[in-house]
Amino acid sequence: MKKKISIYVVLLVVICFLMLYRLDAYIMKPGSAYDVSKFVTVENNHTENKGSMSLMTVAMQQATPFSYLWAKTQKYQKLMDINQVRNPLEDEEEYNVRQLKLMSDSQFNAKYIAFQKAGLQTTIHFDGVFVLNVLDGGASDGLLKAGDEIIEVDGHKISNQQMLVDLLKPKELGDKATVRFIRNKNEQEVTITLKEIPRAEEKRAGLGISYAESKSIETNPKVTMKTEDIGGPSAGLMFTLEILDQLLKEDLTKGYAVAGTGEMLVDGSVGRIGGIDYKVIAADRDGMEIFFAPDDEISPELKAKHPELESNYATAVKTAKEIGTKMKIVPVKTVDDAINYLKQLQPK
Fold first, then answer.
1. Active site residue: 234, 254, 269, 311, which one?
2. DSSP readout, 207-260?
3. pLDDT 10s digits, 30-72
4. Is 234 noted as a catalytic residue in this protein?
5. Mean pLDDT of all residues in 6-25
6. In the chain, where are the structural domains located?
7. pTM
8. Domain 128-215: CATH class, spelled out
9. CATH fold of the domain at 30-57+94-121+220-344
């Protein structure tokens, strides 16, 4: 009896290990289509649309031994090494913060471009320097964290990203910097003793952080975006189209279920994204009729280094043929390509 119980306990431990132990690998698979109007609201909008604009997601999960083995048997599940997903210097929390920052930047660009296309003015504010990650063993280790927004150094208000560099440049190892920052909407202050930046190519004193500019945009009418559960920049194009659709009196959807993906860049071009094949599969499964795919150009140098690399549009077309979808795949290099395509559509 005791022997049987021991065997059951061992089996239970093995099953728990296979199901729960996290490997240094991720699994990517098709996600879902989400109606963008559920996330974006323009004040006094024109939303009597017969169709819809949808953003596409991929599902990402950290692999367990069981899900890893299962993914190997599935055509539309991709195993990815942890370094293909996260930067080598960031932990999981910093990865999540970076994804949310990319989403925030994508929202900024979407508002800016949509209002430009609608002929409306916007006001841009510089908010500070956003901390992306803190280097282990660096000066800020344990003092600053990813997501902090630096607004002042040594009493000087930071008015642009270069100013942070200029204020720190004259300082040497062992010098101190008083940094004022915002964390969870609360202002805090800390004095940091500068150290040599870990793993830097040249030896110099610094805070030991990587960072990005933090800006906000003021619009009239006001745009409200609720995207707490979505990370990354790939919804930028569809955010832009949805905002513009709500600003204009005409119905850009013409009654169609419109989906797409692509980073919205500040010059109006549409940037390449990852996992487009899985987004095409998800869009087809969720009944989308039109799918905008970034028609990015692969440079000869990059093509020589990675011969298998192709544009998002080429991958989307190939995937659409594989699954036999009737969904129309539309190449877009700029937001204007998407707008012009929608404007020439005959209403359903």
1. 234
2. --EEEEEEEEEEESS-EEE--TT--SSTTHHHHHHHHHHHHSSS-TTTT-EEEE
3. 999 999 999 999 998 866 778 999 999 999 888 998 898 999 9
4. yes
5. 77
6. 30-57+94-121+220-344, 128-215
7. 0.87
8. mainly beta
9. Ribosomal Protein S5; domain 2 (3.30.230)
